[in-house]
Amino acid sequence: MRDAIVLESTESIQTDPPSKDFALKNGSSLDRIDPVYWRLGERKVDAMGAGKVVCDGREMMMLASNNYLGLAGDARLMRSGMEAIKSWGNSTSGSRLLNGTNQLHLKLEERLRAFKRLESVVVFQSGYMGNLGVLSSIVSKDDVVIIDKLVHASIIDGCKLAGASVRVFKHQNMESLEKVLKRIAPTIKKLVVVDGIYSMDGDFAKLPELTELAHRYGALVMVDDAHATGVAGPHGRGTADHFGSVEPDIVTGTLSKAFGCFGGFVGSTKQVTDFVKYNSHSFIYSTSLCPSVTASLLTALDIVEKEPERRENLWACTRYLLHGLNQLGYNTGLSETPIIPIILDDENTMFNLVARLDSDDIFVSPVIYPACPRKAPRVRLSLTAEHIIADMDRVLGSLERHGRALGVIN
């Protein structure tokens, strides 16, 4: 079944030239946002600490980072990176298919393969490039990609590059998915693509149910496990580990979140990963991961496997904060993970709440369309293993005070 997705496409990509006023579209975020709030979208971080940052001379609690296990500043990763620089230099100075593959890349791919319990893994320069690479290489104009309405932008962009037909089903709605699958002829090759954990809503894909349904209709399943790898499941292996199921047909992910570095990966059968290596432009035409990063990632994998207490603390703080927010009356949507949105009715109220938290030295993310639905702007909270329950009490106290002042909660 998986062999069916290994298809070569000779179609050229055609793009229309942009209009002269492409940067001045009406209704853009710049038109909608009060200029007083612009500073909240790109605050300059001057220093990082354990669950904290320094911005403009102020120490702030960081609740906007993807550094889920607190490894971005771990001294062991930094030592590994510095030792690799001494041996290998700053850069490989080449792409993987030329001179840019060394033993660190091969070891990292083998470690990730074993960690995710996959047949084969290929490492990319970022999770975004991994999604672009796998979709643009294995899918053609004759195929159909079926995506959840809220998948990551990199998946949508990968489908565009592939030139495939795209069908969308309602978020987490298996009836909607089945309706889409029924409308596609059995002879057409189909790929269902979802996020393992949705980055703006914090909910898990219904992986067992979705996989059974997709396979029943002859479709393969791809999961972007960016926010779940290292975080979810008893072993931290991701969404499949969380549900106690086998990995889907294709798994992608990032190495910039729980692993505290950067990079990405695509995992599947060896046939698929080999095909991706030799047909993905984002793999072929990019300089490979630098030695300091690959060495740091190997150390990060050791820590993820040997220190489960990091995940345990992360999830304890997650449960505590979610319960507290729901008790206060905040709308946290479907969240069940360390990504917790506070969903509001209008953008001005949302920015006002973010500004008030900022004044309390709590750094959170303002999120507006197109990163979320137009009518559901949100304050995005993202926890790390460096937080403690006392931090959650501080956040809840601040949100209770400001939420009442703004009339968001009673």
Helix-strand blueprint:
Blueprint: H1 29-32, E1 47-48, E2 52-55, E3 58-62, H2 75-88, H3 103-116, E4 120-124, H4 127-138, E5 144-148, H5 153-162, E6 165-169, H6 174-182, E7 190-195, H7 207-216, E8 219-224, H8 239-243, E9 250-254, E10 264-268, H9 270-279, H10 281-284, H11 291-306, H12 308-328, E11 339-343, H13 347-359, E12 362-363, E13 365-367, E14 378-382, H14 389-406
Parallel strand pairs: 3-12, 5-6, 5-7, 7-8, 8-9
Antiparallel strand pairs: 1-2, 2-3, 4-10, 9-10, 11-14, 13-14
Question: Could you explain the architecture of this structure?
Answer:
The model is unreliable at about 1-15 (pLDDT under 50). The strands form 3 sheets. A 7-stranded mixed sheet has the order 4-10-9-8-7-5-6, with helices on both faces. It has a 4-stranded mixed sheet with strand order 1-2-3-12. Helix 2 (about 75-90) runs antiparallel to helix 11 (about 290-305). The chain has helices at about 30, 75-90, 105-115, 125-140, 155-160, 175-180, 205-215, 240-245, 270-280, 280-285, 290-305, 310-330, 345-360, 390-405; strands spanning about 45-50, 50-55, 60, 120-125, 145-150, 165-170, 190-195, 220-225, 250-255, 265-270, 340-345, 360-365, 365, 380. The protein is globular, with a radius of gyration of 22 Å. The longest helix has 21 residues, at about 310-330. The chain has 2 domains: about 35-60 and about 310-405, Aspartate Aminotransferase, domain 1, CATH 3.90.1150.10; about 75-305, Aspartate Aminotransferase, domain 2 (3-Layer(aba) Sandwich), CATH 3.40.640. Helix content is about 40%, strand content about 15%. The chain is built from 14 helices and 14 strands. A hairpin with a 2-residue loop joins strand 2 and strand 3 (about 60). It is α/β, with parallel strands linked by helices and about 400 residues long.
